[in-house]
Design goal:
11 helices; disordered N terminus; mainly alpha; 213 residues; disordered C terminus
Length: 213
């Protein structure tokens, strides 16, 4: 170690360093040397914990996917509280406003990483697949509570929300889209799934009041 001090939770520190690089400079800047430099450790530390750099990246993606599982549990617990549109808006902002877009870019740019992830997890695009399942589970809970129409296709709604959210956040420079922009997309997607009048039970009074003021 350059400092002569052993790292505590080396894996976690290396993952956090990689995340900072991804968010700051994108997938092309992510190299083993960049990660260890960012983490403030010798390059050999990474290779003591991982077989190679692609193995490190695969574990990074899987670790971040586990966070989506935790977010999904909290989102499902929120069913029946607030409004459906607000809950979905918050979930999409939490998901795409952090690491998700950068992780998807990393996966699409590295063939070996995609191959390793296919061997370790379900089919589909990592992160986006789990995020779609998260929203579908939440929407199913809201449907059981009567806040989504009984015949609503929650899987298609979730897929549409994730696709729309990804397009809204991807490729942007500077600040991410604000809550109102995300909320507009959400309400448009779920309008036809409201019980009774389209969108009536899914609107957000606070946002509506802000617009009227």
């Amino acid at each position: 170690m350059p400092t002569g001090v052993a790292m505590r939770d080396a894996r976690g520190q290396l993952f956090d360093a990689a995340e900072r690089i991804l968010l700051r400079a994108g997938p092309n800047a992510l190299t083993s040397r960049a990660v260890t430099t960012e983490a403030g450790c010798a390059k050999g530390v990474l290779h003591r914990h991982f077989a190679d750099f692609d193995a490190f990246l695969a574990e990074l993606v899987l670790d971040r996917i586990s966070r989506i599982d935790q977010q999904g549990a909290a989102l499902r617990e929120s069913a029946g509280t607030g409004t459906v549109a607000d809950n979905l808006t918050g979930a999409l902002r939490d998901l795409f406003g952090s690491l998700a877009v950068a992780i998807v870019g990393l996966i699409t740019s590295r063939d070996v990483l995609r191959t390793r992830l296919r061997q370790a997890r379900r089919a589909g695009v990592p992160v986006l697949t789990e995020a779609t399942a998260m929203l579908a589970s939440y929407l199913s809970a809201e449907r059981d509570l009567g806040r989504i129409a009984a015949d609503a296709d929650v899987d298609t709604l979730a897929l549409t929300l994730i696709g729309s959210g990804h397009l809204l956040f991807a490729g942007r420079e500077g600040s991410p889209p604000g809550a109102e922009a995300v909320h507009k997309v959400v309400t448009t997607v779920i309008a036809g799934a409201a019980p009774g009048a389209p969108g009536a039970a899914l609107s957000t009074p606070a946002v509506d009041r802000d617009r009227a003021s």
